[in-house]
């Protein structure tokens, strides 16, 4: 957002000057008018114009600014002053521009959560609704602190899963490259050596050489293989974008041994922590369920949660439709039931989330231990197959040499 330099006279009749951020010159003039400043000169500050194209705002960035806002508001600073400080100190230019715009909107009479709605793609529904609940209850600093804790837990959970998948992914990529290298560069050398032998090569050797020739030719195997990979990825991504495709893929992943168990535990941890955070922040239970369903990250669980919302609207308890769904383990539904009966549902949900964070750690560790030997078997089997295929004619040298 561009900056405008201005000179004028304030309400007390004293000369004043400074800079202001606005979309255009007319908006800058309106902002100054609302501040009771009579403008004599207003022009764009081209020297300090900030370019923020291509910048991506991460969850870590939002955690930093949310934690800063919570601390400053708790210390007694006004929301406008707090936003001004954040706008000057935010880690990225794009984020600074966003908070400058939010500050401007509040100065013009908007509420904090309404100003955030203009940047919904950056903050998300969960963030905006919790801020709205905090404003309504006069607990904005507390809510912002809870938000930062929630986001830190969410980031930690994602990092655990990503770090667990990093090692197997690297090993698999290296294995594929090794096998491809053997096929494209090593096997043709053996083919040249065997071509002068005469006789008939063993079927396994002939198959491997044919496969090598197919993969080595760019106009043949290489081009076809590249086309198949690109086509498969494109079709998969397009299918995943559809409602039906996303549901089918999520349903399949939940049924995959070990992987499905990990996905379910991650989803339960995310659901219970988000639901508990919203309820403890004062968000209505039906609105909280709707937000939780939309941010669950799994279409199967989302569909069951939305059905639960309909059942709760008809007068049923929270736990009844969750038990009927069959997605959540009995321990989860039982603890939710106890939370409803004791009136401490938000606290019980947080305890479930903490428990399942540890369960995710164990599931990730178990999955890693299972994948490692499978990858070693795959690598050893592929390399062993190539070696046996290439040395088989040597073992039968007497019958192969013409």
Structure description:
- The structure is a single chain.
- With 402 residues, the protein is mainly alpha-helical.
- It is built from 17 helices and 3 strands.
- A 3-stranded antiparallel β-sheet has the order 2-1-3.
- It is flat.
Specify the structural class: mainly alpha
Average residue-wise pLDDT: 79
Distance between the termini: 80 Å
Q: Count the E strands.
A: 3
Strand order of the largest sheet: 2-1-3
User: Main β-sheet, in a few words?
Assistant: 3 strands, antiparallel
Strand content: 5-15%
Give the helix proportion (percent range).
over 70%
Q: Counting H and I runs of at least 4 residues, what is the number of helices?
A: 17
Assembly form of the protein: single chain
- Low-confidence spans: pLDDT under 50, at least 5 residues? 49-53
- H and E string: EEHEHHHHHHHHHHHHHHHH
Morphology call: flat
Rg, Cα atoms, Å: 31 Å
Based on the model shown, name its key terms.
flat, 17 helices, mainly alpha, 402 residues
């Amino acid at each position: 957002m561009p900056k405008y330099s201005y000179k004028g006279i304030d309400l007390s009749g004293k000369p004043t000057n400074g800079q202001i951020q606005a979309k255009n010159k007319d908006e800058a003039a309106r902002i100054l008018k609302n501040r009771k400043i009579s403008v004599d000169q207003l022009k764009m500050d081209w020297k300090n114009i900030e370019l923020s194209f291509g910048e991506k705002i991460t969850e870590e960035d939002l955690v930093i600014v949310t934690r800063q806002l919570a601390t400053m508001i708790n210390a007694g600073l006004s929301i406008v002053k707090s936003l001004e400080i954040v706008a000057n100190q935010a880690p990225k230019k794009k984020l600074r521009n966003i908070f400058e715009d939010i500050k401007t909107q509040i100065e013009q009479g908007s509420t904090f959560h309404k100003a955030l709605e203009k940047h919904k793609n950056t903050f998300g529904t969960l963030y905006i609704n919790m801020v709205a609940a905090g404003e309504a209850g006069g607990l904005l600093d507390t809510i912002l602190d809870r938000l930062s804790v929630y986001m830190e837990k969410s980031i930690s959970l994602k990092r655990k899963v990503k770090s667990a998948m990093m090692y197997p992914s690297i090993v698999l990529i290296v294995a594929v490259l090794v096998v491809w290298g053997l096929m494209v560069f090593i096997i043709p050398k053996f083919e040249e050596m065997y071509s002068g032998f005469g006789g008939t090569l063993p079927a396994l050797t002939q198959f491997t050489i044919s496969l090598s020739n197919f993969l080595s030719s760019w106009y043949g195997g290489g081009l076809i293989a590249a086309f198949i990979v690109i086509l498969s990825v494109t079709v998969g991504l397009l299918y995943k974008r559809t409602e039906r495709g996303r549901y089918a893929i999520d349903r399949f992943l939940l049924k995959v041994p070990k992987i499905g168990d990990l996905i379910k535990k991650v989803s339960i941890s995310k659901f219970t922590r988000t639901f508990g955070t919203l309820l403890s922040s004062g968000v209505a239970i039906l609105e909280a369920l709707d937000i939780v369903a939309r941010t669950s990250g799994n279409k199967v669980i989302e569909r069951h949660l939305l059905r639960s919302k309909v059942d709760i609207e008809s007068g049923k308890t929270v736990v009844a439709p969750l038990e009927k769904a069959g997605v959540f383990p009995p321990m989860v539904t039982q603890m939710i039931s106890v939370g409803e009966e004791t009136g401490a549902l938000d606290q019980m949900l947080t305890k479930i989330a903490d428990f399942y964070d540890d369960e995710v750690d164990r599931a990730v560790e178990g999955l890693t231990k299972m994948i490692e030997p499978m990858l070693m078997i795959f690598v050893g089997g592929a390399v062993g197959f190539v070696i046996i295929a290439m040395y088989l004619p040597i073992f039968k040298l007497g019958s192969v040499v013409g």
